[in-house]
Amino acid sequence: MKVEALPAIKGNHNLANYEEAYASFDWKEVEENFSWSKTGKINAAYEAIDRHADGAKKNKVALYYRDANRDEKYTFEEMKELSNKAANVLKQHTDLQKGDRVFVFMPRSPELYFVILGAIKLGAIVGPLFEAFMESAVKDRLEDSEAKVIVTTKELLPRVPIDELPALKHVVVVGEDVKEEGKIIDFFAHFENASKDLEIEWVDRRDGLLLHYTSGSTGKPKGVLHVHNAMIQHYQTAKWVLDLKEEDIYWCTADPGWVTGTVYGIFGPWLLGVTNVIVGGRFSPDYWYETIEKYGVTVWYSAPTAFRMLMSAGDELVKKYNLSSLRHILSVGEPLNPEVIRWGMKVFNKRIHDTWWMTETGGHLICNYPCMDIRPGSMGKPIPGVKAAIIDDHGNELPPNRMGNLAIKKGWPSMMQAIWNNPEKYESYFIGDWYVSGDSAYMDEDGYFWFQGRVDDVIMTSGERVGPFEVESKLVEHPAVAEAGVIGKPDPVRGEIIKAFVALRSGYEASEDLKEDIRQFVKKGLAAHAAPREIEFCEKLPKTRSGKIMRRVLKAWELNLPTGDLSTLED
Ligand code: WTA
């Protein structure tokens, strides 16, 4: 495949020569930056915040926060004190122990970050939940993880089914006039006077840090466990890939409900002591450009869907803002279209760097670096210290230009350490020494990787990973729905949209009103981003003889493609 490459950017980068680093790098070099090399113990929140607060960066701005109502900034020293206070609220008003799961279920705000860091300082495992989740999505995750504490807001509290969760002992509510009763604790009532001092819980590098629930093609969402050791990779990739330096002003647009919002919205920048911008509220092109101008953002990490939405907001809008501070732009979550890269060159005069990784991988794996030519449409090359390959279904490496399973040699520092409560599922990711991603791809003769699609039925809509099974399960709870099959349908802006094929129960008439009612049902029951944008009624769904819905047949119908092998089809 021949594409016009965008030449490497000359200059002084943290990864100045990719080939050289790839040939010689050893993760041991990075470990020495952290306290376990001296004390044998560690805490990621200490390394991200306190280490800087106790040193020369004490008065450096760690966090700029803005949303429609707030505009604030906090130094590393203030972040240390405020996360200590949050930790003390949890310590004094709950019986949180090391290793307990604390879930955070709230929109972005400075308090969200104080609580995440504070809980980690106590040795708890933090499970972030996206604010759009509705009751059953919240329940599934808290139930599976047996969370002891949830921190939420007054607005979201009604979606926490407290009485149905026996393991849940404390519900900390962030908001005004919270009434303390039963398990409910008023965060602000205790935060104000909480002590700024805290004895950090030092943990082992193999102890749990984050529990991110993510979707697969079957079953309920699964809890991907990351441990403190992952910070080695967070730190190093923030250098190599985000190319962060001392003076940078960095903005990652992802919510901590997704892995990008924790790994590169918290740890990446703060482990390096870099100023981090966090923006709350909804996507809005004006507000986003204004944010870059206001803070003089230099490194900007976002997603293809966001770039495509900015693109459709028009080039004139870009010209209204001074975006000249931007030095480095990155993207993650879905294939980055060459068209978007060309648009980035036109309006920002900057290359957009694609990065590939997954919730399970805990950090960047295949990326484009400033020092390297970009081939638009390619995810780039593996980071130093990581071996990537295309393998067949038996674990044999395939030669260049052959499509197959994108796989990574086991053992990189941020690799997930467990699927919560589900060792079989964890094992199912591996063939021998290979972690098999579930993505199909090929590698060209120069070692660039090219994404081709998901091997399974997982849907990527607006960069968010949605499991069709979860949506189908919710759909069949609707009284009119007998059966449902859900697929991702290609969409020019969102990557994919969710489309549901629905067979109605007898006695129900197909109508536009019913479609809307079903859509709202999923929106209210699960999450807005999981509600099907399109619904098509059909008599019957294609199923295997064992009764499994054949989503690939639905997809073929939708796209007018050949349906392939139908030997297992019911009739
Ligand atoms: C997809 C997000 C193409 C892929 C950090 C992967 C991508 C899934 C890219 C993981 C990319 C992520 N190009 N596809 N650069 N990055 N994906 O767990 O299918 O939410 O398996 O992690 O997103 O999604 P997740």
TrEMBL record:
Source domain of life: Bacteria
Domain AMP-dependent synthetase/ligase: residue ranges: 51-417
AMP-binding enzyme C-terminal domain sequence ranges: 470-548
UniProt keyword annotations, A-Z: Acetylation, ATP-binding, Ligase, Nucleotide-binding
GO biological process: acetyl-CoA biosynthetic process
EC assignment: 6.2.1.1
One GO cellular component term: cytosol
One function term, GO molecular function aspect: acetate-CoA ligase activity
InterPro entries referenced in this protein's UniProt entry, alphabetically: AMP-bd_C (IPR025110), AMP-bd_C_sf (IPR045851), AMP-binding_CS (IPR020845), AMP-dep_synth/lig_dom (IPR000873), ANL_N_sf (IPR042099)
Family (UniProt): Belongs to the ATP-dependent AMP-binding enzyme family.
NCBIfam families (alphabetical): PRK04319.1 (NF003313)
Protein name: acetate--CoA ligase
